[in-house]
Fold these 4 entries.
Entry 1:
Amino acid sequence: MEKCTERALKRDGHKTLVIDDKRAARLIGRKLTQKWALSQARRFKPDHVILGKCQGLDLETVATILDNKPNSLWYHDPQWYKSTYRPEVAHVVAVGKLTQTFFVSGFEKEWRALGLPAKFLPSAADRDIRPVPAKKSYHSDVSFIGNGYDPSRAQFLLKIAKKYDLKVWGNGWEEWRKPLNWKGRAVEGKEFAAVCSSSNISLGINPDRAKGGGRYTSDRTWMVILAGGFYLGHGTPGLTEMLREGDHCAWYKDTHSCLAKIGYYLENSAARERIRREGQSFVREHHTFDQRIHNLLSGEAFVNPLS
């Protein structure tokens, strides 16, 4: 995500420096990482600082780098607002309180209640993601790309697999390997696009911990659509205002409606292909990292283009 943001900034004419504090702390230790990061920042002299989780940086280091410069933080895992007892989340909260704007892709009211300057900014996809020619080896009626850390996702997919040809890609599905037709690995880059382009329907399932986040969705939603997927996702009230049913994607409310939508769109390939194309065009115009640069630099909250 940091690299995608950097590429978008460069396309917008900005000079950038990315400091990978987490990797540095792993390679040279936390103490030396503070000195290295401060040295890098002094040498580069940024006009604006965009922060990530800063897990390898002490709060004093972050404060020194910011030093009253315009700044923002974009936190892509907003559903952890209840987990401040976890050290890594508590650290993000502490860093966030040093920032001018704490952007999150959901649950902004809950983060504000913790004393953070939270504003809504949805996740995004790299504009260079594009469909690739369909391949038979990646074909299925329904595909799902994601990790198997949430048993509720597995239970949902098991019901889909009983009725339709399903392939699951990602890590952590060993327990359900056979019934979910798990392919045993994750897919990235052109292989990710091949799954999306080759599947009739690409399924989106929010994890249990994202319940209540009306506008929350991960970057996978935008990635799947840009990669040529016909996206069928969980239609929370906020998301159905960001992508229109029948124009950009399709939405389901529960397992029953999901099965019904799968059946309908498998039988209506012309509508499916039209929505697939229109969805790609809309996401490329409004939901890539290039469209998020203005928010990150100005501190302004996201404005829904469909409003």
Entry 2:
Amino acid sequence: MVAIEQAAESVFITDRNGTIQYVNPTFERLTGYSRKDAIGQNPRILKSGKQDAFFYKRMWDTLIRGISWKGRVINRKKDGSFFEADATISPIFDKSGKITNFVSIKRDVTREIELEKRLFCPVK
């Protein structure tokens, strides 16, 4: 667990129903939500409204089939600002093969996106 606590990526773990059970310090710094704020909540606290219901349906359909989901998400911080992240969400299985938890690992790519926009769409 020490490695996850020190990871540069945001990590949180939910139970099968999506209730947050654990967040690492990077999650706290990135989102502005403290552990106390986040634990017991649903990841919907990060929902930005930038992805539609179909986006989330496809994500959950993949996860409940026991397959990891990878993609880019736009999330909302506690202060209302947005951040973009490359995310991997994976199901965690017990010995019988039943999904017990999900682990989400997100890398903030907001700065890279902004730099790309400046490079490819220079201001005139």
Entry 3:
Amino acid sequence: MVTLYNISILLLRFAYALASLFNPKAKTFRRGRQEQKQQLQRTFPLSQSQALVWFHCASLGEFEQGRPLIEAIKSWRPETKVLLTFFSPSGFEVRKNYEHADFVFYLPWDSPRHAVWFAENIRPALAVFVKYEFWYHYTAELHKRNIPLISVSSIFRSEQIFFKSYGNLFRKMLQSFDHFFVQNKESVDLLASIDIHHVTLAGDTRFDRVYQIIQEASGIPLAAEFKGDQKLVVIGSAWLDDMEILYPFINENGQKIKFIIVPHEIREEFLQSIEKSIKGKTIRYSAAHGLNSHEASVLLIDNVGMLSRLYQYGEFAYVGGAFGEGLHNILEAACQGIPIFFGNKAFHKYQEAVDLVNRGGAFEVGSFLDLKSKYELMVNHPEAYLLACEVTRQYVVENLGASAKIVDYSKKIISSWKAA
């Protein structure tokens, strides 16, 4: 089985090498690892008088789950060194200058040689792998050297290979972890079914991070002026597939409510397409200053970084991505305690989306008519709207505190660390 695993890693490396010839992201992925190889060797080993904690994240989303832990540890003991590694360039390129990490690198490919080098030269007091990050050689080598390894915000499903009759190697990988901090009860039960009991039901650290962002968020005067005293729907991270069912909804309701649209990608072609498809007056954020923005029915956001602060102006939210590869972050909207809509195809792997649908705080929609009927149900029955608001608000409150549980555990390990 180990041989097959090694072959699969080699095939994956070959696939990335091939893709790098014509795919910019794959090219960045491959070049970044090549360029960092010598830099890693020059940086480590350190002359360690202080503990180092290694955080590994696949990409940007997982980084946001690890971020509250990094910042809590740095706040508690600033002299603690933090190594942050990424698998994907979409995480590394955005966070390579992250201020709370002392070192940021790509994770070298999982191989016996790389794993041994990492364990010998990094010598972490604690290794923290976020969510889905399970690498056989790294986990085995850390376990062999008695280096504490934990998995945080992890979530397991019965269809995963760990729970199949042929998944012995992958179960062995899980056994190398000292502790799991999982998101839901199903994960606790699944791990117990393969005799893994060093598990804490902690929840998702993203709740803590998003809640903090929302609490500290400043207002956006232009958005407030645009909204006035009317009801408003914030459409976040919208793709073309989302807009196809939203156009008729906007055109039908544009005289009664207002809309803020935040496209997933700020491309001129997409922005123009949105403007052409909407019957009412649309104004771009970049051009709205100094104009009577309240006269428009749609405010089109043509920059990045504002979405989390815009949800505070909405009575409803629609979050995009679920008609394509996957639903985008709905927690920012949930923290505002408003009903949330999203597509009905690619949301099932997001625990918070499933939970909120089951509780009645979020609504999956498959068409314009579906969206219209579910929206009108709440408009015509205020008690249903208020219940949905309370559900989303309460759901966030219930899930706060995962970071504190993990940090408390981590502090004990870091405090007991002694330089070799």
Entry 4:
Amino acid sequence: MAAAISDAPRITDIPIIFNLPAVAIVMAITWILVRGVKESARSNFWMVVLKLAIIMAFLIVGAFYVQPDNWTAHGGFAPDGFRGIGSAAAIIFFAYIGFDAVSTASEEAKDAKRDLPFGIITSLVICTVLYIVVALVLTGVAPWNEVGTAEPMLTVLERAGSQGFALKLARVFIGLGAVIAMSSVLLVFQLGQPRIFYSMARDGLLPPWAAKIHPKYKTPHVTTIITGVFVGAFSAFMNINEGVELTNIGTLFAFVLVAIGVIVLRICEPNRPRPFRVPGSPVTPLFAVASCIFLMTQLPWVTWLRFFAWLAIGIVFYFSYGYYHSRLRNNAR
């Protein structure tokens, strides 16, 4: 009997076939986004407040158990050299994608020229500082090779002496923080993508129904719902690591195109009104292109294959519909 029980599969060993909680979260976010930007901003505000509270609680507790010798043990901060830093940066880039998504809501900002740059840069600085401080506490309490990848904060708390009920309580709060963190990121992502589709439809690159606005909530509800359905379907079955890598390479490629576009427009349309300025052009855009391409090269080859497959689908759709219906192209003829 004991042998049979010990050989039985644990819950963590059972593969996830359908991720129902992920689908439920995506559908809830979609509903909030359909109702309007103010409701979305209010929900996101409280999620961020709770997320920051959990992070600050971890930092305060963990700071008392930091041992500076751990920062130099087992190779220090860069045990695998610059190659390890590059590979890590290509993955952690996922945590920085939400900042650019804010720009897609520029038409709904009161003073986009002032508010968007300030919001993006300020939040970028704050989050970067938090990432660095959390990493310092994690690696200060335990050497990097003992922190683990699945639940690093819990590993640190165990080393700090948390056991029994205290550890279980910490597991609940950290797990809650992870769910809230991912949900707040998803909210920003799903806020931006429908508005990209909306702008494309308004320019003729997508069918007219994609540019419809909800009569009551004044949001692009059609593209918001379509985005929610697609995100929910993929979240139900896709491996999160593969999803992150594919998201990273797609976003990095988009950044490359944007940076090149800045240079091209400066040359082709020097008199175009520019409420958003890029200092140091063309050096700054070229540096952005080089940085993005470098991070893309650090991702696995299978991610490149998936990226080219999706890119091919997009090109086929563009030349079969968008190219012929583009208002910019038709007006230029």
